[in-house]
Amino acid sequence: MFSRTIRSASKTPLALQSIAVRHFSSLDLIPDEFSGPSVKTEKVPGPKGLAASADVGIFQDPRTHVVIPNYEESKGNYLVDADGNVLLDVFAQISSIGLGYNVPALLELAKTDEFAKAAMNRPALGSFPPVQWAEWLRTGLLTVQPKGLDQLITTLCGSSANETAFKCSFMAYRQRERGGPDVPFTKEEMDSCMDNHSPGAPQLSVLSFKSGFHGRLFGSLSATRSKAIHKVDIPAFDWPAAPFPELKYPLNENVKENEAEEKRCLEEYEKILVESKSTRPVAAVIIEPILSEGGDRHASNEYFRQLRLIAKKHGAYFIVDEVQTGVGATGTFWAHEKWGLQEGEEPDFVTFSKKMQAAGVFHKKDTRPNAPYRNYNTWMGDPIRALQAREMIRLIKQHDLVRHTASTGSSLAESFKSVFGSSAASGKVMNFRGEGDGTYLAWDMATPQLRDAFVGKMRVNGVQIGGCGEQTVRLRPMLTFGEKHAEILVGTTEKVLKEL
After folding, report:
1. What CATH number does residue 218 fall under?
2. Quick one: 89 and 138 in the same domain?
3. In which band, very low, low, confident or very high, does the pLDDT at 20 lie, cut at 50, 70 and 90?
4. What beta strand segments (E) does 326-475 contain?
5. For 329-341, what is the mean pLDDT?
6. pLDDT of 106 over the 60 cut
7. Which residues are catalytic, by number?
8. Within a domain: residue 281?
9. Are residues 220 and 131 part of one domain?
């Protein structure tokens, strides 16, 4: 076995040399963060990692394991694995770590009596919320509520957040048809729903988009369109899927073609909304600001604004799935802030999870169910996750990490463009995208096999990076990712491209 410390393969890229003076360094929050990656084993995972995975495999399917981390030793932007390899983590547990591993301020929160008692006396929040519940939410999650959405339902995960939004949409849609919240259910509705028949169980639908991903529970899976392996063998609702634009890159060189493609997709989308009214009316439309699992697919801000306006025109509620894009990842706290929605055009629902650690749905008061227990379960989230989110939000604001991410992403994009324009990337890399969306950057490799080889070689060279879609490489670093991390990432990318 051997040990090596990973450094940039070349001098600091020009774009990174010209980065303006930062007001934030990851050392401000993680003073003992590693100075760089180091790999001790010839392969990652190494023998200890493989053994640990096999041990889990005795009682649980281990085939999705990537590495087996040692979380006690991991720090900030660096993930330590079972073999002691230190990896720069720019995938962040599928975009789920906001600030980094073992952030001292968060560890201090976990040591408080408030946190410990909230953890050990976990309440059934829907019926027995703690006396501090309103305060915890008002000083935490509700301080980042999207514009126009002053209601909040906490949930367990991103999938359950989306399914909660679906249920709210269906109930609000039928309430509107019925004539308002004060109109009682009929006996026929109450009886027929128990047999899963209409009118109590109406033939309504949720419209999603091809290549979109919204979760793996039954309702959310019916709206998921990213990969067949997620859906095969599972019964599904007969819900429609609209085409999502196939944009050409670079965007500034394909303006007319992309405008025509977006126009075509909007027309098909509206056609589905109209035609569904005679079969399974669309009660809700759900969209990701960037189609993430489906291959980091983008569209223009005006396209998304038109999606919202067309849904409103046809009486469909509009759900923005910010499970992966939310909490500063794209250089604004919520990605849909960039769409230019005017007053009255706000989404009806915004769902969140991942980087927030807590999960839930922001919505409008007129989409509250008309009776109790209609959106309800035992846990309805977890108070310690609400406390964790509150502290993270405080730190994000204190250190201006959303603007930091926007600035870092802008400089990082320039550096990648330089590398991807070199001979090392020729014939291997295409469709670089995400400029203007913070560190939410992505590119395609020439083939799926080349993408998988690239991701594997990056890991052996000390960088944990991820893929999506068929052949896309995506970045999902923490909000504390900065200039020094970017130098390592860009240099390692250039080195690996030369080796492929």
Report:
1. 3.40.640.10
2. no
3. very low
4. 349-352, 359-363, 429-433, 442-445, 463-464, 466-468, 472-474
5. 97
6. yes
7. 213, 321, 354, 378
8. yes
9. yes
* CATH code, domain carrying 10: 3.90.1150.10
* CA–CA distance, 474 with 471 (Å, rounded to integer): 10
Alpha carbon of 232 to those of 221, 228, 235, 356: distances in Å?
10, 6, 8, 30
Q: What share of the chain is helix, strand, coil (3-state, %, to 5)?
A: 40, 15, 45
Residues 269, 309 within the same domain:
yes
Determine the pLDDT at residue 389: 98
Of residues 4 and 276, more confidently modeled: 276
Q: Provide the whole-model pTM.
A: 0.94
Domain extent at residue 266 = 123-381
Q: Let me know: does 482 contact 26? Beta carbons within 8 Å.
A: yes
**CA-based nearest residue to 368, from 222, 56, 152:** 152
pLDDT digits (tens, 9 = 90+) for 288-320: 999 999 999 999 999 999 999 999 999 999 999
User: CA–CA separation, 75 vs 203, rounded Å?
Assistant: 50
Q: Which residue's structure tokens are 């080889």?
A: 453
Whether residues 92 and 128 fall in one domain: no
Q: What rounded mean pLDDT belongs to the chain?
A: 94
